[in-house]
Amino acid sequence: MSSQKYQVLNLYKTLLYMGREYPLGYPYFRDRCHKAFARNRTETDVQTIDQMIKRGEFVVKEIEALYRLKKYRTLRKRYYKHELEPDTDSTA
Predict the structure, then answer these.
(1) Residue 56's Cα: distance from chain center in Å?
(2) pLDDT in tens, 50-85
(3) Residue ranges covered by each domain of the chain
């Protein structure tokens, strides 16, 4: 049981760390994360807790993908701006 407790605490800390750059703001993310963990604090079934931990790890991966996509789009706009704009010099 202490192993699961460690996993849950680690997941919570990881989510809070990942939420620092969330598009809707850190307070929004922190409140939603806290409510989700508080809602399930009385859960005692080991299998259910394992499922919740796996879902939380999936959310971490989705947030990482969101940040990578944001970074990719920013870099693409910065360095390939001329390719993204429509061609205005051609005559039809």
Answers:
(1) 10
(2) 999 999 999 999 999 988 888 888 888 888 866 656
(3) 2-84
CB neighbour list of residue 17: distance below 8 Å, 6 or more residues apart: none
Structure tokens at 53: 């931990």
Instruction: Report CA torsion sign: 46, 54, 6, 22.
Output: negative
Distance, CA of 65 to CA of 26 (rounded, Å): 17
Name the residue among 29, 27, 19 with its Cα closest to residue 67. Answer: 19
Q: b/e per residue, 68-83, with b = 16+ CB within 10 A?
A: eeeeeeeeeeeeeeee
Residue/partner pairs of 32-41 with CB below 8 Å, 24 or more apart: 37/8, 37/12
**Contact in structure between 60 and 11 (CB atoms under 8 Å):** yes
d(CA 36, CA 76): 35
39: pLDDT strictly greater than 60: yes
User: Global pTM?
Assistant: 0.73
